[in-house]
Write a structure and sequence with these properties.
- The protein has 149 residues and is an all-alpha fold.
- Helix content is 74%, strand content 0%.
- It folds into 2 domains: 3-89, Uncharacterised protein YqeY/AIM41, N-terminal domain (Hypothetical Protein Yqey, Chain: A, domain1), CATH 1.10.1510; 98-147, Arc Repressor Mutant, subunit A, CATH 1.10.10.
- α5 packs across α6 (120-131).
- The N and C termini lie far apart (44 Å).
Length: 149
Amino acid sequence: MSLKDKLTDDMKQAMKDKEAGKLRLSVIRMVRATIKNVEIDKKKELSEEEVLDVLAKEVKMRRDSMEEFTKGNRPDLVENLEQEIAILMQYLPQQLSEEEVRAFVAEAVTAAHAATAKDMGKVMAVLMPKVKGRADGKLVNNIVREFLK
């Protein structure tokens, strides 16, 4: 079953669940609309990997908003975004732990023969295909910076 089919099935289930699935329903509808808009823009149906990219962008947008709401002392909005992220994470692949990311970074630094912060682009070019969709980009970036100090 493709990810888009799973989203459709889960949306139907959330509709049947009525009150209990309202947040879930709205999040799934929003994601499906975003996927559809991207398909219209690209004039083609998205592959499974492209759908995962859309989901990852949605999670990233919510995490960025969460930071701002935390700074603005809006715990109600932060809690809502946390729930939305939890719903979206169910559709993304299992996320790598920080230790696993560190192992990938160490491997990429060695493979790219990187020594200084100027070599960060080389390391990211080697690293990102391996961790794409499975690790938060900000975490990866911070760990690479630690390695290249």
